[in-house]
Request: fold
Amino acid sequence: MSKKLQQANLEKKLRDFEQACRGADLKLTHQRLEIFRELALAVDHPSAETIHKRLKKRLATLSLDTVYRTLATLEKHRLITKVETVESQARFEADMDRHHHAICRQCGAITDFNWRSFDEVQLPQEISGWGRIDKKNITLHGICEKCANAGRAK
Reply:
């Protein structure tokens, strides 16, 4: 993707984020905007600690607690997604388009992928009367090609 297209995508995400915050009656603070911007730019599904470390260079007074609270608020309002992992640190993303994840249990890398046929599958009969389903996704766990080729796979 070209730099120009990346910039246009980021600007659209930021406009959409600002509009969503107004719609949810959330103050659009500088810190919230910078935390969302960092997530929108990230491709590695960072943890709160990673986001804090990256932003600390630009926002010297930003506390880790503020990052945690902001991420929780943004997730509560469905402006970001917490990626389900087996590790103790939650990971986050701003990509709200339908997609799934593959997580390497060796290096922790998270790869996004689309699976249209899964997305279109009807739910099993025994769950059909359960209630309203808001989201259905798959998370694959295994060893990525890089780790497997490096002989690190266990």
